[in-house]
Specification:
Blueprint (H helix, E strand, L loop, with lengths): L3 H16 L1 H6 L2 H25 L7 H13 L2 H10 L9 E4 L7 H7 L5 E5 L2 H14 L4 E5 L10 E7 L6 H10 E11 L2 H8 L8 E6 L10 E6 L2
Parallel strand pairs: 1-2, 1-4, 2-3, 4-5
Antiparallel strand pairs: 5-7, 6-7
Helix pairs in contact: 1-4, 3-6, 3-7
Length: about 230
């Protein structure tokens, strides 16, 4: 879509690139033009199907860009650091997006991290149809969709599993998410308020090896955003 939305997206990408050297490298040069074009195409697909499929809650174009697209990309720096930690420098690492819904954060991340294969895990058939159509429209060769409950998705496969606006963390869920991971794999949860994070982590702290909270401010959004990186025991 042309006009202010394009400008807002471009400005948001500029802000993210300024915050972190890794993000700057990913969002630079000719790659930046391709990334912006594919993100714009993705926004268009959400706008086209949102009313029928109930994909995201967004009052207008600006909210869609800020609260969903830029929000998904806000942890780009920390996630790139995780990939380096996991030995994925110059080598592909299998990444999953659990409970992907409309493809958030999986599709925006896959557009930027195009050297890594992504699997979007989603149980609802209508949303799976949207995801597969969108992947085809955008020509995303590094993305596939797995229609399954997280508890029944492929095990021991992914080096990194992301999830956003997914079910609250609790013992059964954290065990199901850990089963998706390779032995050295980690979880990256998109969360907001620190009080809520503490509330969710308290009952599962004995099930995890370690966890850390990283602030990930979103351009043009005053609300709190954090990434919770959870490692296995």
């Amino acid at each position: 879509m042309e006009g202010p939305l394009d400008t807002l997206l471009e400005q948001g990408l500029d802000i993210l690139a300024e915050k972190d050297d890794s993000a700057r490298d990913l969002l630079a040069g000719q790659a930046r033009e391709e990334i912006a074009a594919k993100l714009q195409g993705y926004i268009g697909e959400i706008e086209l199907f949102n009313a029928a499929y109930g994909l995201v809650g967004a009052a207008d174009h600006q909210e869609l860009v800020v609260k969903h697209i830029l929000d998904s990309l806000a942890p780009l720096g920390p996630l790139t650091g995780l990939l380096k930690e996991l030995g994925a420098v110059g080598a592909p690492l299998d990444i999953a997006d659990a409970g992907s819904g409309a493809g958030l954060p999986g599709i925006p991340l896959a557009i930027v991290l195009k050297n890594h294969p992504f699997t979007l895990i989603e149980r609802m058939g209508r949303r799976v149809g949207f995801l597969r159509n969108t992947i085809a429209v955008l020509g995303l060769k590094n993305v596939e969709v797995e229609q399954a409950e997280v508890e029944k998705a492929p095990q021991d496969r992914f080096g990194l599993v992301t999830f956003r606006a997914f079910r609250p963390l609790e013992p059964a869920m954290i065990k199901a998410l850990f089963r998706l991971l390779t032995p050295q794999g980690v979880l990256a949860a998109y969360k907001a308020r620190s009080e809520k994070i503490q509330e969710e982590m308290t009952p599962i702290k004995d099930l995890v090896g370690s966890w850390e909270v990283i602030e990930t401010p979103v351009p043009f959004l005053e609300e709190e955003r954090r990434l919770v990186v959870i490692r296995q025991r």
